[in-house]
Fold these 4 entries.
Entry 1:
Amino acid sequence: MSLSVKTLAAHSPTKSKQAEAFVVSNMRRGMRIRGLAREETTEYPMPVVREAIVNAIAHRDYSIRGEGVRLLMFSDRLEVYSPGRLPGHVTLENLKDERYSRNEAIVSVLSDLGYIERLGYGIDRMIATMQEAGQPARVLKNLPPASG
């Protein structure tokens, strides 16, 4: 299983673009025919990739020092790691229904810059986009904090 890794040590719009470029350069591309038109396809729908990156930057726990958002590309999956547990009262079970922001100022800036279209609906859009693309739902995990 091959692996490519990208770590975002800081948070800025440039880092978001660098992360997106990393995924684009490492994912597989293809094409399909719809009617008479040829359509380029990517391994992961780009709106889902962007949303995962922006969510990781916007909602990470910035009190955790020495860790950044990490993108890990395996031959069979993309993992986006954001330091910290899920914020506030959010759990994996209520993730689609709850709206909570740990970093309101960062979310506000990302929204003003056009990275966030509608607050609180990113996960819903990611799931819907994956279904529309005929791709399996991805697994969301809340991993224990790293020890050390």
Entry 2:
Amino acid sequence: MVEELKNLDLIDLLGERHLMIRKRLAEMWDTQGESHVTISNSEWFIMAKIFTQENPTIAQVAKQTDISRQAVHKAVKSLEAKELVKTTNSTNRVKGLELTQTGKESYDKILSLKSELEEHIKQIVGVKNVELLKKILGTDWGI
């Protein structure tokens, strides 16, 4: 697979690495996660937004994730069925979102798996290279 990456431009290379990382995290979740719940990448992304905010609405999550409100609503319904997310009554009939206890535990586990994967990457490419990559990716690219 690495040989195939050598001929890619920056945009495609970033995309391929992103897919590889997400696939590896999914594999780690499936083999190491205490739960037998399958959680899609979109659902993890939505859970991350809920985790980092206090009772965000579906509209707020949709705007922050650049996922349509309908798609966020569908994902939230799926997460509710898995008992990972619940809705709360907010003001003006707008429902807020929060992680359930199981959702918080699942999110904590995925954070641990991400940390484990980052440590593995550091062992392969070196700590300084990972820190440089994080600095570059965190820089404002003006786009």
Entry 3:
Amino acid sequence: MVDEDLTTTVVRHLDYRVLALAGEIDMHTAPTLRDQIFALIAEDRRPLVVDLTDISFCDSAGVNVAAAARKHAVGQGVTLAIAGLHGRVEKIFRMTGMDRLIPIYATLPEAAFDLIKTSLSD
């Protein structure tokens, strides 16, 4: 999906899914992003990794989306993780404590490896 300020790309792998984001998460883009994440969570039970590597800006609206997504994922029995936090985006997630509520990975490959390893051990 393409928005003026935020681009989203969904990649479905056998064992997990990725929602790759590029651009800005703010009060204008957050509602659509929330809806897309909720739809992906409802789609099936494979883990969902939200890749923020290409996010240049995120304010409290983005943190609120993450908190709501976590709550929805827990209710649906879906593992939700975040990859690619950096700079100010990482700072806001750590300052608000979201890094203690949602598994955070430095890179997408690291998240994929851990999620696949976890699913094999279950």
Entry 4:
Amino acid sequence: MAKIKDVFTALSDPIRRKILKMLKENDMTPGDMIIHFDITKPTLTHHLQTLRVAELVRTQRDKQHIIYSLNQSVFEEVAEVMFDMFGKKGSSGNREARVEKLRGIEMETSLEADSDREGQAPITVQVTEITINNPEPTTDG
């Protein structure tokens, strides 16, 4: 798994968040992506490299093109780490139980690019709450 620091660094930039949002809809080549930004190809390459280091994207070569796709498993792994850090005390310590509980976590992330922040310092992310939607089974009687 990528380092948590690399994931949050990658998510801190509005251009990279917009790239992730586009990849959520469709796999794309850098040529497909560049038309959505007012940046140079080397700048896009830098952003894509940051996303690769954080393992938020996967690449696949198709003849002369590199196709980027979203790697959703990293988001699940980060959610698991967050659950381990901030979950209820006394919750099960085995990985299988944690993964099962994570299936009920709904994580909403705004991947909208904030064009007003371009060139400014990175955004600091602070997690204040994790909601787990995993109701306990009920017994009748």
